[in-house]
Amino acid sequence: MTTDVGNAVPGGTEVRKLDRVVIRFAGDSGDGMQLTGDRFTSEAAAFGNDLATLPNFPAEIRAPQGTLPGVSSFQLHFADYDILTPGDRPDVLVAMNPAALKANIGDLPHGGMLIVNTDEFTKRNLVKVGYETDPLEDDSLEAYQVHKVAMATLTIGALENTGLGKKDAERAKNMFALGLLSWMYHRPTEGTERFLREKFAKKPDIAEANVLAFRAGWNYGETTESFAVTYEVAPAKLDVGTYRQITGNTATAYGIVAAGQQSGLPVVLGTYPITPASDILHELSKHKHFGITTLQAEDEIAGIGAALGASYGGALGVTSTSGPGIALKSETIGLAVMTELPLVVIDVQRGGPSTGLPTKTEQADLLQAMFGRNGESPVPIVAPRSPADCFDAALDAVRIALKYRTPVLLLSDGAIANGSEPWLIPDVDKLPDLRTPFATEPNAPDGSGEFWPYLRDPETLARAWAVPGTAGLQHRIGGLEKADGHGNISYDPANHDHMVRLRQRKIDGIEVPDVEVDDPSGEARVLVVGWGSSYGPIGAAARRVRKLGMPVAHAHLRHLNPFPRNLGDVLSRYERVIVPEMNLGQLALLLRARYLVDAVSYTKVQGLPFKAEELQDVLADVIKGVSA
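Structure tokens predicted for 2-oxoglutarate ferredoxin oxidoreductase subunit alpha:
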């Protein structure tokens, strides 16, 4: 973090200019940390900073209050330049109770700022998390800049004339914290006050209480002598255009909406709520006026069945889920492979196996996406690299599904889905044309006047797509093996071999862009290959080691099946290939098998994203080993 000492403002507070800051809000799951972090993020976005966020919350609906399993946090990294990650460690930690302090203090570097809600540091709450003495009194925090603030007491005092009871008033203490941090970093206030009045429009007394608490936090910073310094982070120099803050799930939903418009097809989302994919359903349900139909089915199997049925009927079928749901949907995905119908299956990956870590991130569904069906049933796989990239990745998945008549797996993950960053709103006129022609007349080559559903486009190998009920195009499809061309049921061994290889050849022939390599010096001997949300940490780590004078190349894969055609050549140009993944080495396994490259795995399955600092150390060690 680069610091410039600025001038003092009236009242004597010094203003320091920073190029970036990482703030983490942490508290009980009922303390509103996600809302607090989201509001600070919105104001940072409106101010023009580049940003990246990492929400982190418990899986329990309501864990026991004041306990370590119940801690919820929201980390925000904002800067005046292009950033790639939510930050490794917070510069500022706001701890609303002892559990939040104990769960997060290990990440705060020495010298970092700690703002603590002292009202929650009671003997009972300290015992709950294993503190034998009060850390605010025993000098165990002397390595940090500690600011003790009685947030609950001050909030209740600010709201004493509103008529709210003590308990209801205390709930607004998160807005007090937000006001204090907004003052400290010179964030605008109008947007938050407007948001609170809109959010609680049906409860105006609650709205005004939150506004008063927010102002009280701001005024506390303005009047207390505890904070001698405030900070400024200038807007980032981004490409010219209109931006908005966006999460990965929202961007995915917008990509599906745009795909429906660009294809001219109605969109049917058949799905079942599951963490962390549910927000895709929530967002798409708001856009019926764009021809979006959302169906919340009774289970995962029914959801994908409705989506595939919609595709059979001439719509764009979409389903969304996480890893456990992919397991349940696998039979219907296989049916989509056999019937060769377009279908987009969105998998927002989370920690597994089974129910696993439903609110934590992981990249462990790659082999499931690749092979998790019976028989030879190849499916294209597309993986976005960041929240904003989910929009383009969704469009790409739809392009492939429609053009090649195939189900496509879109592999997001929890870090991307819930994280946010600025999104440059695209020019609608520049979006791809996804219109796909339906069959309109008989096509049988034998002159019988029949429609053969499995006659193929010689370039894409996609079969003809006919809307049921089209006059003269009666046809039959289903899960049993088809005879090539006319599509009648066939148990002939040679035909089955032919059809299996044909379906595989269709997937292998899908057009995907060549993988690009970031190798500024052209002198790198080590290549780091990533996919999905590892893009940010790998990119940030590569920047760091290059600053240390160690060249490294970085290639990131959006298309995991089929791989880009130039990938083998790229891998062969480097002496060592390292593959960081949030699994036990699934992409590395595929690269070794396909290209016979001795890829080095670096793996992590903690339910948390990589940190740039840990990847920096890994890359530096590999580069030194190659250079030795």
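The mean pLDDT is 95.
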